[in-house]
Amino acid sequence: MNKIFLILILTFLVSCSKKENDLEYEKKVMNEIVVEIVDTLYDNVSNRQLPPPPPPSILNGNGNKVWTKSDSLREVKRIADYHKQISFLRNELIKKDTTRLLIAVYDTVYSNEENGEKILINHFSDIEYDTMKATDLTNYKIDLSKIKNNSMFIFNYRSHFPSINEIWTKKYNFPFIGVVSLSRIDFDKSTKYGFLTVSYNIDRMNGNTFRIFIKKDQDKWQIDKMTML
Length: 229
What we know:
The protein is an alpha+beta fold. It has 4 helices and 9 strands; from the N terminus they run ααββααβββββββ. The protein starts with a helix and ends with a strand.
């Protein structure tokens, strides 16, 4: 009886240790990726002035809209050049913009969506799902002091701000750009792919929720795709 009891205790301790290690790994990934997430969200709604997309090209002097193979290749190259220009200009604007931006982050990182396994596998091919998140749905408080590579944003806990109405009218020392809430991250078995759900409000009546897929590339986490829900 004592031997069985000892085995049960050891199993419980190993399980607790694994959950703790899994959670610490997840927190580390969150700290690494959250700046890129907020920057991408802000960039989608900011006033950074970028050139408009190019108008449709006139394929020939007669206005003939029948595309030849060379027309198609030329059009693909033109659009690709535009996106390269946009990427370059955006990076230059960010470098020149030294304004610190204030953002409120909900203190608690909450449970992610149901059916996380299906969502993750539908987006990333050839992965195996880790049931870690299915057995550990614990909410936790995010540690904003550990967010890395942050020279643009000032993160502060939502609980430090006024009520839902006053938060948008209060005067701050820095430009206030909104409120973000984060879910926990669902990983695949290799912990090289994952997704989380993020809500972003830029004023009292204007906000959206996004499903953000992330992946690890050469030991660095990056956004793979962001889908508005």
